[in-house]
């Protein structure tokens, strides 16, 4: 494991606290959907530390459950996209020829369209009136299935370099079978690239979900998500009067910043 | 160079055509396609309902629709948007200039800000000069484009500057890494050892050789800016192509969505190709 700087350790602690809090949501703030009709748009109080929304729902509970949705499903989507990228990028780099050209053209096609446009167009073609759980699954499946192109390009290049390396040449010359070559020699060496692509995808997917939900195409109500909660920010005067409404935005920015800090390797400056 | 141009042109054409076809296929397979709200009107008789259905008959077969679309495109006819009840060409004519101006401001603003900060960081070479821009760019990278648009809306600023703020952190990081590696190359070390002034080293030995890669920033920035323009135009209610794309997607407007897909792919690929050509010509020259 690489050495972590002080800032990166702090980021790790923040992420751990946020993840644990979201996992303990059921204990900390039991219900995200209960509507307290006697406390509509209530300010923060001991009972509701972040107040309630216009339907009388506990904002803290919604924030914790929303965090759970984003923090658990974004890595799942990242894993899916990395696996798809590993299949296409890895086989293209390993096999070469027509398959490599086909995969490269597919990658070019996906990358020729801006990520958010692609996501928006395909999400809009899925059923829009779905149950909240289906909408969550659809949103993150889509992120996973459409986010493969950029990692696949890097994995293809990495595989190509490995295929042309001396030790693989020697293994081939020694008569090692293609399957063994792939599983024993190529895949273990591709692991760092795959891991990097997995971690890079997580903040991208968290932000994409937020954008999609803000446009009304993400996670459906009453299930909370960071993006869906950010829609409250459209009411500028309400935000000015109730600054605690900014909590989802602050938490989202803090978590994505922490993830980016952890992903950063060295940041050298010429001296 | 001509062969590279021809190859790139072929690549763009093929990608755009396949992209358009995929877009059309996805819309055709999407749930709710072919359903017309007018069919719910009890006053319509069987003949009227049949007439409404036959209006969409050509769209039921994707291959036929796409063929007709391409034939029309060759004659400058982009089709008709059913959701907005207007010709697509008219919608593009009205909205494209607005988005292009926003993109121009956003891309140029993002590049100027990002490149300027990257230059300051590498030229100054102090811990503070690295820390502040890194923090600002990190913060901008962590905020969804739609939230940036909301903040700009609150401040009464235009959406085009929100696009610049989305583009800037990517430009800053790319340009900084590029300039840092340029500073570490042997010819720059030799120039510094000879006692050349910092400005001369920066301009003649760092910036000049890195110019083609910096030009490639335009390619990355245009794609980023287009993506950002969708939530930004929707949130700030700007009647541009980004907002049109959102409406087309929600309304499942096949001709409109295919045209927007082709337009965006064409613009993005054209700018990327220009950046690639700049790099290729530089390599050929050296």
Keywords, separated by commas or semicolons:
heterodimer; A: 271 residues; mainly alpha; 12 helices; 70% helix; 0% strand; B: 286 residues; MetI-like fold; two-stranded antiparallel ribbon; 2 strands; 81% helix
Please give the domain count of chain B. 1
Helix content of chain B: over 70%
The CATH first-level class of chain B comes to Mainly Alpha
Please tally the β strands of chain A and state the result. Answer: 0
**Main sheet: strand order of chain B:** 1-2
Largest sheet of chain B: 2 strands, antiparallel
End-to-end Cα distance of chain A, whole Å, is 28 Å
Rg of chain A, nearest Å: 22 Å
The quaternary structure here is heterodimer
Measured by residues with Cβ under 8 Å of the partner chain's Cβ, the largest interface is: A-B, 45 and 57 residues
User: How many strand segments of chain B?
Assistant: 2
Give the name of the CATH superfamily of chain B.
MetI-like
What is the strand content of chain A?
A: under 5%
Number of helices of chain B: 12
Overall mean confidence score, pLDDT of chain B: 82
- Runs of chain B in which pLDDT lies below 50 for 5 or more consecutive residues are none
CATH architecture of chain B: Orthogonal Bundle
Characterise this structure:
The complex is a heterodimer of chains A (271) and B (286). The longest helix of chain A is centred in the N-terminal third of the chain and has 37 residues, at 59-95. Chain A has helices spanning 6-23, 25-28, 59-95, 97-112, 115-125, 132-146, 149-163, 166-173, 178-214, 226-230, 236-241, 247-263. By secondary structure, chain A is mainly alpha-helical. In chain B, strands 1-2 form a two-stranded antiparallel sheet. Chain B has helices at 2-29, 46-55, 57-60, 62-74, 88-124, 127-141, 145-155, 159-183, 186-193, 198-235, 241-251, 254-285, and strands spanning 80-81, 86-87. Chain B has a single domain (2-285), classed as MetI-like fold (Orthogonal Bundle), CATH 1.10.3720. In chain B, helix 1 packs antiparallel against helix 12 (254-285) and helix 8 runs antiparallel to helix 10 (198-235). In chain B, strand 1 and strand 2 (86-87) form a beta hairpin. Chain B has twelve helices and two strands, in the order ααααββαααααααα. Chain B has 286 residues and is an all-alpha fold. Classes of the chains: A mainly alpha (271), B mainly alpha (286).
């Amino acid at each position: 494991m690489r050495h972590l700087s002080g800032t990166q350790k702090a980021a790790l602690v923040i992420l751990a606290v946020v993840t644990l809090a979201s996992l303990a949501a059921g204990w900390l703030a039991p219900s995200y959907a209960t509507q307290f009709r006697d406390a509509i748009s209530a300010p923060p109080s001991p009972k509701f530390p972040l107040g309630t929304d216009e339907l009388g729902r506990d904002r803290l509970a919604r924030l914790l459950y929303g965090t759970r949705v984003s923090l658990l499903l974004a890595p799942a989507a990242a894993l899916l996209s990395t696996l798809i990228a590993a299949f296409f990028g890895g086989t293209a780099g390993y096999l070469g020829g027509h398959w490599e050209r086909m995969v490269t053209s597919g990658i070019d096609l996906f990358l020729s369209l801006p990520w958010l446009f692609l996501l928006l167009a395909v999400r809009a073609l899925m059923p829009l009136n779905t149950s909240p759980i289906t909408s969550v699954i659809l949103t993150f499946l889509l992120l996973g299935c459409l986010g493969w192109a950029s990692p696949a390009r890097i994995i293809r290049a990495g595989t190509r370099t490995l295929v042309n390396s001396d030790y693989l040449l020697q293994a081939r010359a020694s008569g090692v079978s293609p399957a063994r070559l792939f599983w024993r020699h190529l895949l273990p060496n591709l692991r760092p690239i795959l891991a990097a692509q997995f971690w890079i995808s997580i903040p991208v997917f968290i932000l994409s979900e937020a954008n999609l939900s803000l446009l009304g195409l993400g996670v459906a109500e009453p299930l909370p998500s960071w993006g869906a909660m950010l829609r409250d920010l459209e009411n500028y005067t309400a935000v000015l009067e109730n600054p605690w409404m900014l909590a989802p935005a602050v938490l989202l920015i803090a978590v994505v910043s922490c993830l980016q800090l952890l992903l950063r390797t060295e940041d050298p400056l010429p001296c | 160079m001509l062969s590279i141009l021809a190859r790139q042109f072929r690549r763009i054409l093929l990608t755009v055509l396949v992209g358009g076809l995929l877009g059309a296929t996805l819309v055709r397979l999407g749930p709710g396609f072919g359903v017309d709200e007018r069919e719910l009107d009890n006053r319509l008789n069987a003949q009227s309902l049949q007439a409404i259905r036959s209006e969409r008959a050509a769209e039921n077969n994707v291959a036929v629709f796409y063929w007709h679309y391409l034939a029309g495109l060759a004659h400058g006819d982009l089709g008709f948007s059913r959701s907005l009840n207007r010709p697509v060409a008219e919608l593009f004519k009205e909205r494209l200039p607005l988005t292009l101006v926003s993109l121009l401001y956003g891309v140029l603003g993002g590049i100027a800000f990002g490149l300027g900060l990257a230059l300051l960081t590498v030229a100054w070479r102090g811990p503070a000069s690295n820390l502040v821009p890194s923090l600002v760019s990190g913060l901008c990278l962590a905020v969804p484009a739609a939230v940036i648009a909301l903040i700009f809306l609150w401040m009464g600023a235009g959406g085009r500057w929100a696009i610049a703020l989305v583009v800037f952190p990517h430009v800053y990081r790319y340009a900084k890494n590029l300039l840092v590696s340029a500073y570490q190359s042997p010819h720059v070390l030799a120039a510094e050892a000879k006692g050349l002034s910092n400005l001369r080293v920066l301009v003649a030995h760092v910036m000049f050789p890195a110019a083609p890669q910096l030009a490639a920033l335009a390619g990355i920035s245009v794609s980023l800016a287009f993506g950002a323009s969708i939530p930004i135009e929707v949130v700030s209610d700007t009647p541009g192509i980004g907002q049109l794309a959102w409406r087309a997607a929600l309304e499942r407007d096949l001709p409109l969505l295919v045209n927007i897909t082709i337009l965006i792919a064409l613009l993005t690929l054209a700018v990327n190709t220009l950046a690639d050509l700049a790099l290729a010509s530089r390599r050929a020259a050296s």
